[in-house]
Amino acid sequence: xxxxxxxxxxxxxxxxxxxxxxxxxxxxxxxxxxxxxxxxxxxxxxxxxxxxxxxxxxxxxxxxxxxxxxxxxxxxxxxxxxxxxxxxxxxxxxxxxxxxxxxxxxxxxxxxxxxxxxxxxxxxxxxxxxxxxxxxxxxxxxxxxxxxxxxxxxxxxxxxxxxxxxxxxxxxxxxxxxxxxxxxxxxxxxxxxxxxxxxxxxxxxxxxxxxxxxxxxxxxxxxxxxxxxxxxxxxxxxxxxxxxxxxxxxxxxxxxxxxxxxxx
Length: 264
Prior knowledge:
alpha+beta; Alpha-Beta Plaits; nine-stranded antiparallel beta sheet; two-stranded antiparallel ribbon; 13 strands; about 30% helix
């Protein structure tokens, strides 16, 4: 069934408000949600910029809502939002997912959240109400995938609506775990040659989910491209097939999405 643009916006807004400042990192993880400020989207600048400092935690949250779970999402929001925000949780950026290119998971959105430090995230996990709050997730969402890393240096990410962005999530082949990294290194020059660049690599992120295998990916990568056709141009470059052999031997599972920043 094809979904019209108005319906897509409505779905995204439902997801966004249901997650905004309600999702918190993984293991132990956290979320904040449906009671989030409804004017957050309209406050997004023309270019979406995420600026974080060394030591902060960055989480990528990818939800798939359960249509029957509105009551649970509201309760989750009411309880988790107050606690998480008091500890410093911030919504940093929100993205629609115009296309799932590879994979079996079809999330409703991609959201970035931050913690001021590991201690703040840990404080949530140790809150006496947290186990009961977290237990609401399976009823509120069909799946909720959360990938989190501690930043090793100051980080600024800028997303331009005139550009195209892809999100790649790679689970490594345990028998050849370095092959994927060899692939990424081998194609770096080709990516630049077609005008692209890697803007974020979350290496060995912590991973949380309630409906998927609890195996963490080796890397989560966001790349910027001049246009939607740039990835195809990359694959047509001479020598790419030989480099792609490292990809084939290096991953056991892979998800690949086209994402778009939510801009005012």
